[in-house]
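User: If only I could read backbone structure tokens as easily as an amino acid sequence. Those tokens are not coordinates but codes from a learned vocabulary of shapes. Could you go through the record with me and say what the backbone is doing? Here is the record:
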Amino acid sequence: MNRFDLPAIAMGIAFALMWSSAFSTARIIVQETAPLTALSFRFAISGCLGIGWALALGQPLRLSRGQTKAMITFGICQNAIYLGVNFVAMQWIEASLAAIIASSLPLVVAFLSWLFFGEKVGWLGMAGLCFGIAGVGLIMGVRLDGSYGILGAGLCFAGAVALAIATLTVRMASTGGNLAMVIGQQMLVGCCILAIPAILFETSTLTWSWKFAAAFAYTTIVPGLLATWVWFTLVNRVGPTRASSFHFLNPFFGVAVAAALLGEPFGPTDIIGVVIITAGILAVQADRKRSGD
């Protein structure tokens, strides 16, 4: 549809808030149990809820061949790889840093769109992307010190690349409708993939508490199902490059939620950084409008 209007902006902001909040709840979860085991169980629950929702809406269980391929690719790249490596990484790094790294997604999406699909990015869009990265770099420069694991940061960057690939498959996965069924099935793909390393390499121990239960329930329903539905809808509405630019809000929302829930630091540099990031988002959207997308 490529309609960038107020509803699209509202969806983008809502998605960014829900998505960013998942980093803090994931941090709570991995402090209490094995990360891949917890994530696999989360996908099993989300997948069953999603498929049940789809069946209640009258959507068929069987997807088209093209949808199935795209759904499996999305489930592997976003759920198994992106979320898998982020859950593992947050054993060693703060939730706010993981959210900041995830905001590099628009650059990766723009590069892959240019490389594989010949999508053009004008000078205004490039300036916006540079502004976004500058804002991310400003926030990261203050937060990245010797206490953060290099391995954890590297895993998060690898996850951002996988998420970019998943983003480019969203339209193919949702073409033909049956969106709720696609969402439910791609959750089960992530569950099956992550169950293998969880069984082979993790010893599942769990410390039950109300905080863990609330975090697990929230991340299963809100970032797991609701945010995914909003994301699919948004990408179909405005395209992957425009939609992914809302990930530039991850530093602000991620840092703000982590400060509120986990007591992680939040200062003036974070505010300056998010202003720069917001300017980058506006430039990217203006460039896409000029190009007619």
About this structure: The radius of gyration is 18 Å.
